[in-house]
Every structure is written in C-alpha cells, then in structure tokens.
# Entry
Amino acid sequence: MTESRTPLRILAPESAVPRIAAELSRRRFLSLAALAGGTALLAACAPGGSTTSPSSQASGGALEDALSVYTWGDYDSPDVVSAFTADLGPKVTLDSYSSNEELIAKLIAAKGTSGFDIVVPTGVFIPQMIENGLLTKFNKDLLPNLSNMDPTALGRAWDPENEYSVCKAWGTTGFVYDKTIITRELSTWADFFDAAQNEASGKTSMSDDPAGIIGAYFWANDLDWNTQDADQLEACRKFLVEEIAPHIAAFDSYPGTNAIPQGTQVLMQAWNGDARLGLLESSDPDRWQWVLPGPVTELWMDNWAIAAGAPHPEAAHAFINFSMTPENLMLNLDYIGYNVGGKDMQTGATDAGMELTDLIFFSDAQLAAMKEQELNDSQTVRVEIWNEMKAAAGA
Amino acid sequence: MRRRSLGGLLAVPAWVWLAVFFVAPVGMVIWFSFGYKPGIFGTHANDVLSFDRYLEALSPTFFATFANTLWVGLLGTALCFLIGAPVAYWMAFKVRPERRGILIALVLIPFWTNFLIRTIGWQVILAPEGWMSQALQSLGLLDGPLDLLYTRTAVLIGVVYNYLPLMILPLFVAFDRVGPAVREASKDLGAGKVSTFFRVTLPLSRPGVVAGVLLVFIPLMGDYITATVLGGAKGNMVGQLVASQFQTAQNWALGSAMAVVLMLVIALTIAAAAAVLWLVALPFRSRNRLVLGAAPGPASAPASAHASQETQVTP
Amino acid sequence: MSATKTETILRQRDGSMLGSGRRTHRSWTDVALNVWGVLVLLFLFAPIIVIVIYSFNTGRLLVSFDGFGLDAFRTILEKPAVQNAVRVSLITALISAIIATTLGTLAGIAMARHPGRWVWWFLGLLLLVSVTPEIVDAVALLPWFVTLGQDWGMAIFDDGIVRLSIGSSLFATAVVSYLVRARLIGQEANLEEASSDLYALPFTTFRRVTLALAMPAVLAGFLLAFTLSLDNTIVAAFVQVSGTTPWPVYVLSAVRSGLRPEVAAVSTIMLILTLIALAVVAVVLRRAGDSATDIARTMGGG
# Structure
C-alpha cells in the first residue's frame, strides 16, 4: 500500500514546537488507535467459529474490488478471468495448490484467515470440509445461472442440495493402450489387468493415487469400491501387490501429458481429459485407443466452493455465477478439456471444432456406470496397500 | 579466553533463527508423532500419547523402501563425487582465477530453472522415440529404442544431475583453500601428480569433501520427486512414504513418526559410514604419521620422506 | 592466491617447468581435466537447451513439439498468475539468500575460528535441519506461522514474502555454514593474528582479513542459497498466502492440467536475463581495470 504524503509545514515559534509535535503525534496515535479498535470490533463481529458452518454472508450488495481464487494450476480460462474483471470490476488473484489435502491442511491451520475466497475442492473431500467448518453456504439468489447446469452434474452425493458447492468440472477414469502392441480389443478393467500381466508387462502405468489403483480392482470385480470390508481389502492387497505390482513401470497420474506423446508406455490408466490431451498431441494418434472400461468406473468432480471467512463474498458469488453463463462454460470447456457440467454442450462443442468429444461427453448409460468415491475409515488401509504396491514395484 | 567466548557469539543470530523457525516447529512434529489420527476427518490428536505410531512406521514396506532409498543415496552420492570432484579440481587449479567466478555461476545457472522443468527436459532427451534415441540408433550405437526411462539408471541420472552443484561447490571451495603452494612443494620434493592429490590435496580439503558428501547424501535420502519423474516405480523412496501419510492419508501422527524414524536412520547411516571410513583410514593414518621430536635413529617411528603432515581435522 | 615466488623466479629463469607452461607444455591430465569440465558443463546444460528449444513450441503441451513460434512468450503477457509467481519466487529467493548468507557466514566463521563445545551442538542442529524431510518442515511451519501471526499478533508473519523467505532460508543457512566452515577450518589463523599484531581492531580484522579469506565460500554460498530457494516447493506450498504463489508451486500445480509451453518460455526468459546479468558483471569488472580483476580473483578464489 503506497501512501502519498505531502509534508505539512508549520511555521511556529521555537517554544511551541514540542507541544505541536506532541499534539500531532498524539492525534495520529489516537486515530490509529481508533482505526485499530474499529477493525477489532468488526473482526469480533464477523462470523467466525470453526464448529458450525457459517451461513452465507453475501447479500447481493456491491461487489468488492478484489477476489482471491485458490485453485488448481492453469485450471481457468484466462479469457473468462479477464472478462470478469472487465465486465464486473473485481481484480482476480489466482493462487495454486496441487492436492486437496494440502488445501484442507492450509484452511484448517489458517482458521478462517487464509484470505482465500473461492476454493476448488474435489467432491469427495467436501463432507470433510463441511464438518470442519471450512466452507460457507451459498446464497443461491446470487447464483441464478445454476439453471444453465446439467441436472446430472448437480445434486451429487457429497452435497445433495448444492448448498456449499457446484460443479466446476467432472471426469472419469479409464485407460489408453497402444494398438500396435496390444492387438486384441480391451474393454473392461479385467482386460486391463490381464494385459498388464502379459503384453504390457513392464510398460504399464497406473495412477499415483490409491483411489484409482484400488478402485480399478473393485471395478474389475464389479464390487462397491468404497467398501470397508476387511476381507475384500485383503484380497485386493494380495492381488495388487503380488500379481500386478511387478509389472508396473510407473505410477503416473498424468500420462497424457508425457507418456502418450513420448510413447514411453504401452498401457496407461488415465483420466479422460488427460487421455484426450495426449491423443490430440500425439504425433501418431491412431496408435492409441482410449477405453471407458466396464463394468463400472469412477466419477470425480471438482467444485466451486466459498471458503469460510472469505473476505470478498459478493465478488465470489459473482465470479461463480459468471462462470456458469453458456459462453463462459464453453470457454472453460475448451481450455481445460473436461466436461464443465453445462446443459446441452455437446453439439455446441462439436460445432466449435473440438475434437474427440466422446472423451468428454458420455451417454446416460455410461454415466450410470460411474460411481463416486466416498472417504471413509478404510482410507488408512488403502494408503497402506498403495505404499506396499509401490515398494513391490520398485524392488 | 574472553576472545574465544566473544567469537562464539557470532553464531548466535544463526542459533536464534534456527531455534525459532526450525526447532520449535519440528518439536511440534515430534510431539505429533506420539498422538494418533482421530477418525477419518481429523489429521492429528494428542490426548492419548503412545509409541504405537512408531511400531506402525517400522513396517516391512518401510524397510523395503528404505533399502531402495539407501541404494540410490549411496550410489548417487558416490557418482556425484566421482563426477564432481574432477570438475571442482579443474575449477580450483586449472582455470584462470578471473574465470572462476563465472564458472561457479555457470555451474549453478541450470539450477535456476525449476527442477520439474529440467527433469522434463531429461524426459524429452531420454524419450525412446526422441531425437537422441534416433540419433544413437542411426549411428549404430543402439540396437533398439533408448530404454533408459523408468529404470534404475534413469533414477541415478536424475538424482546425480540435481545434486551435482551441491557437491561441486563445497569441493571447489575446499580445493581452492589448499592453494598451489603446498602442492608445488610436494612436487618439488618428488611426488607425482597422483601422489600429490591423494596425500596432500585431498586430506587438506577433507572438510570440503565431507561437506559435499553430506550436503548431497542427506537431502537425497529425503527426496522423492526427482527419483520418480525419471525412474517411475524404480524410484520409490522413503520420503514418499512420509509425504503420503501427511497428504493422502491425512495421518499426521503416523507421518511424524515415520519422519522421525527416517531422520534417525539417516543419522545412523552417517555415523556408520564415518566409523567405517575412520577404520579404513587407520592404516594410512599410522603410516603417514610424522613424529616430531623423537630420538634420531633408524629404528624410530616411520617418518616418510614426503612432507605431508597429517591434519587432525575432524569433520 | 596468485603465482608463488618460486614459480615467478623459475619462470624468469627457465620459462617452462612446474605448471606455469600454459603455452608450451600441457600435460595430458590438464587436457583431460579441461575436456571433463566442459563435458560436465554440457551435461548440466543439456536439459536446459532442450527447454529453451521447446519454449518455441506452438503446441498445447510442453513435451509435444508442434511447430516453431513465439506464441508461448505472448501468452505469458496474458497470464498475470505466471508473472506474479516468477516475481514472488525471485524476490523471496533474493531475501532468503541474503538472510542465509549473513547468518551462515557468521556461524561458519564462529565454528572455524572460535570453536568450543558449543560447536558440536550447533553442528548437530545443522545436521538436524538437513536431515528433516521437507514435508515435515512444511507441516510444522504452517501452524507455527499462524500462531505467530494470528494468535500472538505479530502481523509480519502473515505476509507471504516473509513466510516464504523464512521457509527457504533454513536449509540454506545450514549449507552456507558448512561451506564457510570448510573454507576456513584448519587454515591457521596466522593472517588474523598478524593483523591484530599490526594494531587492527577486532572488527577490522574480521572485515578485512577473515571475511576476505572466506569470500569464495561466501559467494558460493550466496549463489547456492539463491538456487536452493528458487526451487523450494513443498514448504513454499504450505506456507504461502493469497497472492504469493511462488513459481515452483505454480508449476507443480499446473502438471495436473498438462504443462503448456509458457512454462518453458518463462524458464528461457529467466535464463537469458541471468546470462545478461553475468555478461554485464564480467564487462564491468574488466572495464574497471586491475583492481577489479583482483576483486574477481579474490571472490573466485584466486
């Protein structure tokens, strides 16, 4: 904050100088004290508390002049951000994090003073954030553009009424394989594991995340992948550590951005948007085949949410609402390459020249086979299995 | 006496800085390690203290991963030394003095690029379908595509690359301290180049050697990202276990316990290595011992013709 | 240290032997060392050259070359997030390097010149700092900063740059201490004693003798501390506040969305700026004449 101070010059008799100086400094001190006291008073009045989720503070008043968004790196179209500032005013600051747990740890440690307005958690972590009082409820009156969202993207398990969150982007998990080396057709997760142990042995990569790896086992066997049953988890551990781990070359959550263009693996577990990027950027796209595997697979979703203690709640609501206009939904869809949850976007996307839209838009039947993750007590065991698998693969 | 205590005061600012910003928070982490994880949504709680987390931390997975980490750490440090020492020697003795500053800067400039980006640069270089692979194949040096990525070799390349400056700089600083005078005296007295290096230069620069080895080995043991980007699954390191507890599992108690175990094990490894080196150097030390003031006579303690006085410097 | 008296006399007499024969007799070891040095420098710069080339990639993905162009550089201008991240990183690296060099130099000199039992404890502390995994540092520092800043009211710890500088300076302080100590230890304190014999005050001795002797280590330490701070990722990710995302955190976070060529373009720009700065320094030193060459020699360890 720069202050321009034009010096005040006073011509005064020598004897009066000390008194005047004291007077001025006393006045300054008093004004500062008043300011400090006022701030303290306002701070005390502001809703705090970490045990109950604070209710929405935004009431449709004037927009503040700044907005702080804490999101994934490079996850927002710069056109949308600059259009927001140009149309509505608030200057947007984007900060990045690289994992949900990092986000949660920061918000918990900051106890409401993090300074962030909008955060973008993945759906599975939202129940945890709500329980820890890290999110503020939406004022839905300020989000009329919710009507532009596809109903299937709303009302998910972690926030059925969309009180705290709304879809920003969603995707699924599948795999990509090299057709020149694996000449048969693969279509299920069981096929994936089979190929990993045979043609693609030593050239397979799975995602670097217990959810994707352990999920793959349960999806292959058409079981509930959020199970807490100890026997099922033990069977999973045995299979993954003893039969699959020796064939895994890498644990890579983003093969589309390195392994596919560089052709370093033959069989890769990947998110749909990441795979799409890889196929588009590969010099030989016909070599690769994307599979949305059956019988079931995953649905994950990143959501807009407003952090508790957000300093600019009006601007936050305005930005989320702004992002849900059809034009901005299309801009974001094009920029990040994932389904942004808007209504009837597929025709618009193909008309606009987007390629491989079947890796973004899915039929109702495919959607029905996608299951959301649920964070529960089995997480400790899952992390153990994941670490064991990595140790076995590295041996 | 008074001067000595006053001089020690020079270190006080560093003491205070490290105490406030390091010791206090790490003390907190050690405190966490005696706690537990309170349910799925909590990260740590300390109302019930126990050593259970330590028992959990010392699992077979930990030992298997640690073995791999130790392999990478020892081999990586050794390679860094073998590759970096000649460079440091070159910079200290063979290059004109005005150019040395620029060379120091040149050694460091690649590392002002973000580590992930320069590791991606390596990925591009080592890609089996990349230009280097194709060039090597057309030259007949390779039978098939370059198959280095996701192997143990790639882990070592990545690790050595990222830690080379931490080895070169301390070695340079130490070699430079030796100076040409003593080396020339050694050559004047008939020692060859190799002899001079191993009996004069290297022992005198031992603090630098130790600094370089420690500055590479220790962070390397805790690092995990570098190893996995190029080496894939083969680059599995213990640091990843610790990070996975703090991040994915949100179990700070277990993560803290693992971190403490890791730190203790690294310290033990260094102590063991120091003991081994001390034992190995014992015969050399006794051979080179120059006994001053002994009664002159042919049967007295072996005094070598070389004027290499052993420096009793402890790292 | 410049040529010794022996060497100068011999050179005047014979003009050949004892390592001064730069133009006449170059031993094979000299050639081999030259070659090795150049090879290692090439090894160090190899991925950097690749990144510079790929910064002219007009494609979507950094690793997949589509065509030559300056698109990536133009996009940087449209992304204030990228510009901010680089600015934050450079500022905090500079501050952190200054802190680490100051504290580390003092500590290193103290350890080498004024040893006592405390040295073992201090070395233990430095070892502890080095041994601690970064993630431990990170999760420990964040609540500590919050406590200092919020609960105890020291608002300075809420500032992002302050937090980042402190976080990166810890390991760097240890590094500089080791370097300075390695430089000075074992070297007899002759020159310092001579200096005080000649009636110099302790501070003058410190400034003009000890510091000068340690200067190559101080310089190397400063550069090393700067380098280490630029790459500080995990601690930085945890302690940052709104508006101060440092560059490595941005890069790691952007991996999820697929790194674009702008990332390489930023690296190229930083590289060019560094090389320009280096060239300027070299030219200035040469222009300034002999005394400056002496300075460079001292700083480079001549």
User: Anything to note?
Assistant: The mean pLDDT of chain C is 82. The two ends of chain C are 5 Å apart (CA to CA). The longest helix of chain C spans residues 80-113.
